[in-house]
Design a protein that fits this description.
This protein has helices spanning 3-18, 25-34, 41-56, 58-64, 74-83, 96-102, 115-125, 136-139, 147-154, 158-164, 182-191, 218-221, 230-238, 256-264, 278-291, 307-310, 336-339, 342-360, 382-391, 419-422; strands at residues 171-175, 196-198, 205-208, 225-227, 246-249, 270-275, 296-300, 315-321, 363-373, 395-398, 415-417, 427-434. Strands 5, 6, 7, 8, 9, 10, 11 and 12 form an 8-stranded mixed β-sheet that branches. Strands 2-3-1-4 form a 4-stranded antiparallel β-sheet. It is 42% helix and 14% strand. It binds S-adenosylmethionine. S-adenosylmethionine binds next to helix 14, strand 6 and helix 18.
């Protein structure tokens, strides 16, 4: 595709994302590319990078274009994202004359800029994406209502933490030790010209430089590596699941952590992967097969189900990877910043405490309940844990440890991982120990 055709496709994709405001942008993008199989891998990555740069700078780009009558259109926003591209990002920055030349109206190119659009972009081209006159919530792309809570929580570290959350995330892989070692996986990737380096904290992690086509690699197809952020790998390590244990992954989704737990258990013992979403649990089937996991069964949780009652107090480890705001993954899902409301947070908090209470009954005396989120918000993390401990005197806070937990990380109580401090997505994890 020509650069103009890529630009045109990015504008089209942004329009599709905007017309489905409740749908995650990556789901819209997957459908968009599925319908356009003629778009090759390199073009697809360039189109996605441009669209994601626009989503990542959304509030700032709109701030720069605030005087455009009727508000900034997707084509202006995408053009502004190129003009103001960050040198460290994956979109090459271009000047006004280069960008306006792409809008030439030829076949597959966007229509020419109107005089008004050209004027707006010319003034943007003289700026930088961040501007000292921007209000803090715009500068850091966070909802206004959430800024006070985040400000109070992070204090002096607020700007560093929020700035790190604006950067594109690396692509991390977890090596599946059921299929081979980390060295073998790195070598297999290198043979396919994919450069990966060990992650600093997870013993199974490999980090890919830039955007590389991992799902086409044979190391991925054969189940030797799985895509998983290093922080998410550490949540699985915090469960300290061992061979021959009975382990429950209570909010298993499509099995990201189930796979890592099965590996920690050397494919022995028994894991039950539960969820309330049939579609998500179904998504685990292919992944479990690819990874060679055969100690896991899936169970769909439905209301009135006697399943949990029959298994009360029977699991050595129960992981609650709770449904949450996903604020810790805003590097990957910048569109989620706009969708997240106060009402969503209130509903999530109720759901999290209900899930914790249900899951707590499934842990055997002396066993462990591990509570985790990919949220940065105390309301979903420390506050939930404290409230739980006050409801359940048979539980105490344990240390986050285990054979795969990195010695470099203090696991003394509640552990928070952040992009600024750990170069992972934002995660929270806490071990709750049930009295014997
Ligand atoms: C953070 S996601 C889990 C991600 C998954 N553990 C992984 O590593 O890929 C949270 C999951 O909780 C599930 N969930 C929501 N409400 C639930 C409930 N009441 N009981 C169990 N799971 C629930 C959601 O369907 C979602 O799949």
């Amino acid at each position: 595709m020509t650069p103009a055709a890529r630009l045109s496709a990015a504008i089209e994709l942004l329009c599709a994302i905007e017309s489905a405001p409740r749908r995650p942008a990556d789901a819209v993008a997957n459908a968009f590319f599925r319908d356009r199989r003629f778009i090759g891998g390199g073009d697809r990555r360039a189109i996605s990078a441009l669209t994601w740069a626009t989503l990542r700078g959304w509030r700032r780009l709109n701030w720069h274009l605030r005087d455009v009558p009727g508000g900034a259109s997707p084509r202006l926003l995408v053009a502004a994202a190129i003009l103001l591209a960050d040198a460290a990002g994956d979109v090459p920055q271009q000047g006004f004359s280069e960008v306006s030349a792409l809008f030439d109206g030829s076949r597959f190119a966007p229509d020419p800029l109107s005089p008004r659009e050209a004027l707006a972009l010319q003034s943007v081209a003289r700026s930088t994406l961040d501007d000292p006159a921007m209000p803090r919530a715009i500068r850091f792309e966070i909802p206004e209502w959430l800024e006070p809570a985040l400000g109070a929580q992070f204090g002096d570290a607020f700007e560093t933490e929020m700035a790190a959350l604006l950067q594109p995330a690396p692509l991390d892989l977890r090596v599946n030790l059921l299929r081979g070692t980390r060295d073998e996986a790195a070598r297999a990737l290198r043979r396919e010209k994919l450069a990966a380096t060990p992650t600093p904290l997870s013993p199974w992690g490999l980090r890919l430089a830039g955007r590389q086509p991992i799902t086409a690699a044979s190391a991925f197809k054969s189940g030797l590596v799985e895509i998983q952020d290093e922080g998410s790998q550490l949540i699985a390590a915090a469960v300290s699941a061992g061979p021959d244990m009975r382990v429950l992954d209570y909010c298993a989704g499509a099995g990201g952590k189930t796979l890592a737990l099965a590996m920690c258990m050397d494919n022995r013992g028994h894991i039950v992967a539960c969820d309330v979403s049939e579609a998500r649990l179904e998504g685990a089937v292919k992944r479990l097969r690819r990874a060679g996991v055969h100690n896991a069964e899936r169970h769909l949780l439905v209301s009135g189900d006697k399943w949990a009652k029959r298994r009360a107090g029977s699991f050595d480890r129960v992981l609650v990877d709770a449904p949450c705001s996903g604020t810790g993954t805003w590097r990957r899902n910048p569109d989620a910043r706009r969708r997240f409301s106060e009402n969503d947070l209130a509903e999530l908090r109720v759901k999290q405490s209900e899930i914790l209470d249900r899951a707590a009954g499934l842990v055997r005396p002396g066993g462990r309940l591990v509570y985790a989120t990919c949220s940065l918000l105390a309301a979903e993390n420390a506050d939930q844990v404290r409230a739980f401990l006050s409801r359940r005197p048979d539980y105490t806070m344990g240390a986050v440890d285990g054979p795969n937990w990195p010695a470099a990380l203090d696991g003394a109580g509640m552990v928070s991982l952040t992009p600024a401090q750990h170069e992972t997505d934002g995660f929270f994890v806490c071990v709750l120990q049930r009295a014997a």
